[in-house]
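In this section we walk through a basic example: taking a raw amino acid sequence and producing a predicted 3D structure, encoded as discrete structure tokens. The instruction is simple. Fold the sequence below.
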Amino acid sequence: MGSMTAGGPASGPVGVVGAGLMGSAVASRLLEAGYAVSAYDIDPARCEALRARGAGVAASIAALARECPVIVLAGFNPD
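The resulting token sequence is shown next.
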């Protein structure tokens, strides 16, 4: 498997599940560091700001999992 360092060879983008406050911040930092990023959220509108910054947007979690060797989960628990 390739190195996941910014600028180094990688086997695919970093996936981010959840594009709310935490997930969008994580994805933004990854993009700023030079990583390829693909995002998914149950509310597709939340991914649009990330798309505008250069991230890919997956149609489903399954599609994200097929595309990304590393996935960050930024989920919300109302409890």
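Looking at the output, two observations stand out. The two ends are 38 Å apart (CA to CA). Helices lie at 21-32, 48-52, 61-67. In the next section we compare this with other chains.
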